[in-house]
Write a structure and sequence with these properties.
Blueprint: E1 3-9, H1 13-22, E2 30-33, H2 49-52, H3 107-120, E3 124-125, H4 133-142, E4 146-148, E5 150-151, E6 153-154, E7 157-158, H5 161-166, E8 175-178, E9 183-189, E10 192-198, E11 201-210, H6 213-223, E12 234-236, E13 240-248, H7 250-263, E14 270-274, E15 286-293, E16 297-304, E17 311-314, E18 325-327, H8 334-351, E19 360-365, H9 372-379, E20 381-382, E21 408-410, H10 425-435
Parallel strand pairs: 1-2, 1-11, 2-8, 11-21
Antiparallel strand pairs: 3-5, 4-14, 6-7, 9-10, 10-11, 12-17, 13-16, 13-19, 13-20, 14-15, 15-16, 17-18
């Protein structure tokens, strides 16, 4: 039976970062297990085009099976790099207050790891001439509230966690990567983990780190029998939002064609931060952003960034291939309806602004006559930012150890106890950066 010092179950954004950092010690053997494929070092040229292309979300391939195929909010990547290989490459921190997670946690304590993660992802801010006419108009309309995205795009490639952390480590003899290998459950004995069942075999380890994401990690722990005394899978939260679509005018069509010929087109480049009437001080509880798709098709969305509603992740079967029962709980708390309706009205205001109006012929979706609250209730969806299903303070201690177990950790978005008021990729990778010092 193979034995390792550290066994990492899941090669997503956090798992890749952990593997890269932990294998820096040549005396520590590390095994990284991934249910999906690993296409090797970027230089080998075997990565699929949709994974490399940072212009659009890569949501048509390398996905886990869902219990509701129509629910895109359940989408999660099954590939080395995880959802960092699918996402929009937006690298944003939350507000300082977003990181008050209990003993030992504060923005001051966490900031060095946020910076380290951003640097390792080779983050840079988009240049002005890279912005499409559609995004530039929204940026100008949003004024001081506009955020031009810091991105992890390198040489036209989505620089996911696998490229940033695993590629530099591939030559290390102490790192083993087991791709196309499904993590089933953790092996437990007398308050400790002794390893895990992966694929058709057992692996022994001194330390096991579960890193399957906000959906996958509770699945692994629940199959391991850890849901009886701990609220594993409870507290699921994602940014909740809705969108609108417009008919582009002839000036926008002409300007977009000219921009595409010189710079190419990118789906998302700008976010406008906003605050609802009920927003607490120190944070922005709304994000509004324009989107651009091939056509061009122009749209926009608004998301509540500090939602109150909570859901859960549960097992439908003990079979690790079976889809999980994911209940988002969107709009379960009526306060989220009010906040999101305000955000949608802000989106409409921006579309009607002097800067954007020349590009908008009419609202196609849902239609100008549709009430904001009605639209919110009918179309609410997630932002692909699920967190908190194995949360610090509820399932984990302050160092990401499963309560009651010295050598079993969970390090990924599921450990984040309160959703940050920003995209979660940077926070997730920074959490792995910090946890690597404890493991």
């Amino acid at each position: 039976m193979a034995r390792y010092d550290v066994l990492i179950l899941g090669a997503g954004a956090a798992g890749c970062a952990l593997a890269g950092r932990l294998s820096e010690n040549p005396d520590r053997s590390v095994c990284l297990v991934e249910a999906g494929p690993d296409y090797g070092h970027l230089s080998e040229g075997r990565w699929p085009a949709d994974i490399l292309d940072p212009r659009w979300l890569a949501l048509e391939s390398h996905l886990w099976e869902r219990d509701d195929a129509e629910d895109r909010s359940q989408a999660r990547a099954r590939i080395l790099g995880g959802c960092s290989a699918h996402n929009a490459c937006v690298v944003l921190e939350g507000a300082p207050s977003d990181y008050e997670w209990g003993s030992g946690w504060s923005y001051e304590a966490f900031a060095p790891y946020l910076r380290r993660a951003a640097e390792t992802l080779r983050t840079h801010v988009l240049a002005d001439d890279e912005l499409t006419p559609w995004h530039r108009a929204f940026r100008e309309a949003g004024r001081a509230d506009s955020i031009v995205h810091p991105v992890n795009i390198v040489g036209g490639v989505r620089w996911h966690s696998g490229f940033a952390y695993v590629d530099p480590a591939r030559g290390r003899t102490n790192l083993t990567i087991l791709a196309d290998t499904l993590a089933d459950r953790v092996l437990l004995e007398d308050g400790r983990t002794t390893g895990a069942v992966v694929g058709e075999r057992e692996l022994e380890a001194d330390t096991v780190v579960v890193s399957g994401g906000a959906y996958g990690s509770p699945g692994i722990l629940l199959r391991s029998g850890l849901g009886a005394d701990l609220p594993v899978g409870e507290g699921l939260v994602d940014h909740v939002g809705t969108g609108a679509g417009w008919e582009p005018t002839e000036p926008l069509l002409a300007q977009t064609a000219a921009h595409e010929a010189e710079h190419g087109l990118y789906m998302g480049q700008v976010t406008i931060a906003a605050r609802s009437r009920s927003c607490p001080p120190g944070v922005n509880d709304l994000f509004v952003f324009p989107a651009l798709d091939v056509g061009p098709e122009i749209s926009g969305a608004a998301f509540a960034m500090k939602p109150f509603s909570r859901g859960s992740v549960r097992l439908r079967s003990a079979d690790p291939e079976a889809p999980l029962a994911i209940d988002h709980g969107f709009l379960r708390d009526e306060r989220d309806v009010d906040v999101l309706a305000e955000g949608f009205e802000r989106l409409r205001e921006l579309a009607a602004s002097d800067e954007v109006r020349p590009y908008v012929a009419r609202e196609l979706r849902p239609g100008a006559e549709v009430d904001a609250e009605m639209h919110v209730r009918a179309t609410a969806r997630g932002f692909f930012h699920p967190v908190a299903t194995c949360a610090i303070g509820r399932v984990l201690d302050e160092r990401c150890r499963v309560l009651g177990f010295e050598n079993l950790y969970v390090v990924d978005a599921s450990a984040i106890p309160e959703i940050p008021s920003a995209n979660t990729n940077l926070t997730t990778i920074a959490l792995a950066e910090r946890a690597a010092e404890w493991i």
